[in-house]
User: Fold this.
Amino acid sequence: MKIKFDNFELNVETPSKLLQNKKYIFFLHGFTCSSGDWSDVIDKNFNPILIDLIGHGKSDSPKDLDFYRDDSQLEQIKKIISHFTDEKIILCGYSMGGRLALSFANKYAGNLSGLILESSTYGINSKLERDERIKQDNAVCEYINTHSINEFVNFWMNKDLFSSLKKMPEEKYNSVIESKIENNKIGLVNSLLGFGTGIMPSLIKNLKKIEIPTLLITGELDKKFTKINQEMMNEFPNAIHTIINNVGHSTHLENPSEFIDRINQFLSDLK
Assistant:
């Protein structure tokens, strides 16, 4: 379904039937990804709401950069949530979507009964490091603008961060690649310029104020984000960090059954 905003529409995928007695989990994908990446983690124990973030998937890719900034995207998510329920929900975000989910929890914790962050971060503390990351993201934007979407996806997926994805069955890996190629170049560039890791304010000092139950998920092979999430767990008042063996950054793609198990355990602990 499409949810209309003043100047654009966002695509949201849902099951054909939503169950009244089940928790809603709203899923936010990562950069270059889409709602379809969550298709293998749908489960009967919760109502999954899969959002194509602005500039991705079947959602619109407006040229106005302001729609991609933190505050605007948080209001977009808030409106989508209110379309489905007035009750508290669980927000689950992967990588870029995890940063967005954390930003939402920082501003609207009262709307959440739980938070799930997969392979994500609180931002970058050092201004020098933020400036360097912005330069790197600007270089990626230049690459996107001067190459075809196929060339960019090939460049992006050859990063070490995603190397373990190539261990997936060839058919599944090709499906992931095809979904990325369907993205819009304007949407990808604006996503980096409006909500890149260097642009996002560091929330490390805010984690102590986020008291809702929080599940942090990382892959064993993703040493960088596993270390970051161990640090985050020690800052959250009510968080656990679970590590899925033999997978990297994209745990929900590499081992969806284990990912579902961790979520279902988290849900049972909420009761």
The two ends are 31 Å apart (CA to CA). Strands lie at 2-4, 9-13, 23-28, 46-51, 89-94, 112-118, 214-219, 239-244. The chain is about 40% helix and 15% strand. The first strand starts at residue 2 and ends at 4.
